[in-house]
Amino acid sequence: MTKNELTILKLLKENEKATYSQIEPKMEIKNHDKYWTTFSTICSLISSGVIVSNNKYPSNYSLTSYGKVKVKEVL
């Protein structure tokens, strides 16, 4: 897992849910576009079944059952 993916998992472990605006400031951006970096990291975690979105605006992201197991494994 990338550093940014681990950052999101730590945030969700502590808070159960998080919005984009809570996630974005914690991302390691360097010379990349902050919106694309954050969005692509979130999408990667969703597509791998680790987190889920409630499909509302603003979206709340939370860990899936698999994600909770993964958190125990990697953190």
Structural class category? alpha+beta
Indicate the proportion of strand residues.
Answer: 5-15%
Q: How do the SSEs run, as a string of H and E?
A: HEHHEEH
The total count of strands amounts to 3
Alpha-carbon distance between the two ends: 11 Å
User: How much is the radius of gyration in Å?
Assistant: 11 Å
Task: Give the proportion of residues in helices.
Answer: 40-55%
- Overall geometric form: globular
| Side-by-side strand order of the widest sheet | 1-3-2
Residue stretches low in confidence (pLDDT < 50, at least 5 long) are: none
List the total number of helices: 4
Summarize model confidence as the mean pLDDT: 95
Largest sheet: 3 strands, antiparallel
Write structural notes for this entry.
With 75 residues, the protein is an alpha+beta fold. The protein is 55% helix and 13% strand. It contains four helices and three strands. A three-stranded antiparallel beta sheet has the order 1-3-2. Strand 2 (51-53) and strand 3 form a beta hairpin. Helix 1 crosses helix 4. The radius of gyration is 11 Å and the shape is globular.
Task: Report a brief summary of the structure.
The protein has helices at residues 3-15, 20-23, 34-47, 65-74, and strands at residues 17-19, 51-53, 60-63.
List the keywords.
75 residues; globular
